[in-house]
Amino acid sequence: MNIKKRKAVLIALVYMVFMFPVYSNAMHIMEGFLDPLWCAVWAAASLPFVLIGFNKISKILKETPEKKLLLALCGAFIFVLSALKLPSVTGSTSHPTGTGLAAILFGPAPTAVLGLIVLVFQALFLAHGGLSTLGANTFSMAVAGPLVAYAVFKSLKKVNVKLAVFMAAFLERVYTN
Fold first, then answer.
1. Cβ neighbours of residue 122 under 8 Å, at least 6 residues apart?
2. Residue of 105, 117, 118, 119 lying closest to 60 (CA atoms)
3. Element (H, E) at 157
4. Which segments cross the bilayer (predicted)?
5. DSSP state letter for 91
6. pTM, entire model
7. Gap between the Cα atoms of 51 and 53, Å rounded
8. Which residues contact 51 (CB under 8 A, 6 or more apart)?
9. 109-125 confidence digits (pLDDT tens)
10. At what angle do helices 68-83 and 108-121 cross, to 10 degrees?
11. Closest CA to 32 of 142, 127, 145, 144
């Protein structure tokens, strides 16, 4: 790829990141914050992705059982990374999620399952989020972010793989919370 085309792609990506910012002041939606109706709506919105994810994971493990360890490692990576609280400019905290890596390796559907498992553990053991808001948090962290990461990676990997991985992880984080 020539230099002019690379510069154009880089300028377009920078423009996309800075012209469409997403502001976040919290880690997860806390327990009891959402109305029960919205809890049900978000759970219903997340459910198809999780069910498709379970089917994809089953298919992946039947075809290549040796990927079980890598899948578990991605889940552990998501858990550890998303358990970190980092100070934010707004005075709140934020955190990386790590779902971009799983989306690149396995696709967005299996990542939805990994994200759901991580969110259940965080709600029960770390008091991040809650069980009633699990659907909304799942959609934010485990559906929307991985879909963005996967789409960005697939569209940029032919241009430059390193740039594709970086932009997928970066934009996944920007659009997750």
1. 28, 79, 82, 83, 128, 129
2. 105
3. none
4. 36-57, 69-89, 101-127, 134-153
5. S
6. 0.77
7. 5
8. none
9. 999 999 999 888 888 88
10. 50
11. 127
